[in-house]
Amino acid sequence: MAFTKKRTMLQIFPPSLRDIWDKWELRFVVLSSLIFQITLVLLGNKRKHRTSTWLRITLWFSYLLADWLATISLGVLSNKVGDSTEGDFVEPKYVIISLWAPLLLIHLGGSDTMTAYSMEDNELWGRRFLSFIVQIVVALYIFLRVWTDNDLNVLAIPIFVAGIVKMGERIWVLWSASSQQFKESLFPDPDPGPNYARYMETYIAASHEGFLVDVQGLETPSIGDDHTHAAAEANIIPLPQTDTHGPDEIVKIAHNFLKTFKPLFADLILSFQDVLESRLSLQNGIGEEVFQVMEVELGFMYDLFYTKAAVTYSFMGSFLRLVTISCNVSVLCGFFSIQKNQYPKVDVFVTYVLLLGAITLEIYSVISLYILSPDWTMLWLSGHKNKVTSHMMRALKKVKNKRWSSSIGQFNLISFCLKAKEQRCSIVQKLWCFMFGKGFRKKVGKCSLVRMIIDIYQSYQKYKCTDIKIVNDDLKNIIFEHFINKIKEVNMTEEVKDEEKVADEIKRFCYHRGNKVLERFKCSAQLGWSFEGEFDQSILLWHIATDLCYNCVSGEGADTNSGQNFREASKLLSEYMLFLLVMRPSMLPNGIGEIRFQDTCAEATEFVKDRKSIKRKKEAFEMLLIVSSESENVHPSQVKGDRSKSILFDACRLAMRLTKLRNEDEGETKRMWELITQVWVEMLGYAASHCQGIHHAQQLRHGGELLTHVCLLMAHLGITDQFQISKGHARKKLIRK
């Protein structure tokens, strides 16, 4: 019986290529692992203040491949040394490559500037811990398999120490940043409260002795009295004047607040006293300075979630960093001094590259964390004032330290629909329609692969229509003054001493979603219907209406007294909120925003498609306003029903109502833009306070979101439902009669 020999996949390649791969496979994979580690160290900290998609893709690719290649390298090494021994003799080429095993453990320990790509990686610390144990066992197997009385084998021991230290640091950081452990680390010490059992024993004993026992409460100071307010004022941390103080003062203030407001990211409750102190500290500040404090705080939070800051910026972390660098340097010196004639020159070169790479990465990590991102260093130096630290502080102040991207995403619905129209009229689209009928396309659309490709393409089209704008100081001041003015109104109507009542009123601000601004401007009767639906519906309504007013209403929107341009601010916030709805829906309250968006886009695209003369956005707006003005008495829902969730012409009605609120007077135009801007700020605050802490933490790795800064600002001012007024222990005493 004849058997056919199976042809393997590798036999497709010529024998010469297979020989080259067998010879260079291990060297290529090990050096590739080092290259990806270098990428992570160089770029890991940049995503803190950059929104680049290419940076995100590069880091994601490097993060996955760095660990994967190091693991593969250990597997290839174990296979090669498995058959390396013949009796008591070990070939020198296997002895030198065995030194690579502990060097790969250093790679698996990860870079100091990026321990986790996302928050989900922190949750998988247990799986990572188990895989690290297996990898250490494999490295030890390789080491023991080729062990001889050789100087090179002895040099592997310090590298093992450095590798295990690095891996241990990474596991500890991942574990401490996991949601459950992070939350538990914020719990106060266990408090059993007053001893109820002993109290009742005394009560029963006194009753049995014939005493008439009465329970009376001890007088304790209430939350709203003078004592509480005075205690809060005593702990106020005043904001420094930027022209007389350096960034070290801002860093100290931000770190002080960080201890208090960490619970926000674990969805825990803040204490009333802490919120009161932060509100009194910030309410007299300037918007740009207050936002700078928020930037530093969120920079600290990023470091705790995604880097080894929790270890590095401690005495033990500094000691361990000294240990790892010393181990690597000592091994490099030892390797340089021993005889290497018996080893392949290529492997000697690769070993030098790996050792120098490990040392360089350690040194650059220290420079990156301590000098290029100097907030933690400034914090430590500010607590140890002397001549040396003063000189170091002055040097660090000259370093440009970006903490977030200072930018917001922008998405315009009408511009997106106009581009969709152009794509539908493209040559490729016409060719597709000519080649395949409608029935065929419907059948193909049911295929999972085709649907996946279409979804990816649609996501790409949305991405192409996004824009990035800088968050200027004008916008920061508008947002800050909006909330401060609300707080001042409460303080004017309530007694200042009754802090509990004031806090309850301020707390309610996080449920305002634009309707309260209409009440203040006395426009609820005309515009209140725009907030009767779901929050995502209000976003779409006001986005389209703002865009219509921006392109069709003449006049400036600047306040000549303060220099604030409400017209530009309203456009920025309008397109930012729609960007969140389309690209970051998880950060907004639950709803059908994505369905409503696609239906509105479909109607807008159909409207533009039917009117072929429309080429530009302004022409589209003029046609929309003409249709809306001619059908003022016919509500869109009467014609469309409720099956379609489109709100295109409802938004046009809203725009018409907004334009009727002003006349040709320039001041009235500015008042309209101020109304629109204040509505958007209130909606921004509503979205910020209703976004879970985990979603805010996720966006820190994408350059940060303005929504996160606003959420933290509101919490500092007490505009959050994540705090409660603690009544303390109900202290009682027994009275025997």
Automatic annotation (TrEMBL):
Segments traversing the membrane: 26-45, 57-77, 97-117, 129-148, 154-175, 318-338, 350-372
Domain of life from the UniProt record: Eukaryota
Keywords: Membrane, Transmembrane, Transmembrane helix
Record-linked Pfam families: DUF4220, DUF594
Residue ranges constituting the DUF4220 domain according to the UniProt record: 60-416
Name assigned to this protein: DUF4220 domain-containing protein
Organism: Cajanus cajan (Pigeon pea)
Lineage: Eukaryota, Viridiplantae, Streptophyta, Embryophyta, Tracheophyta
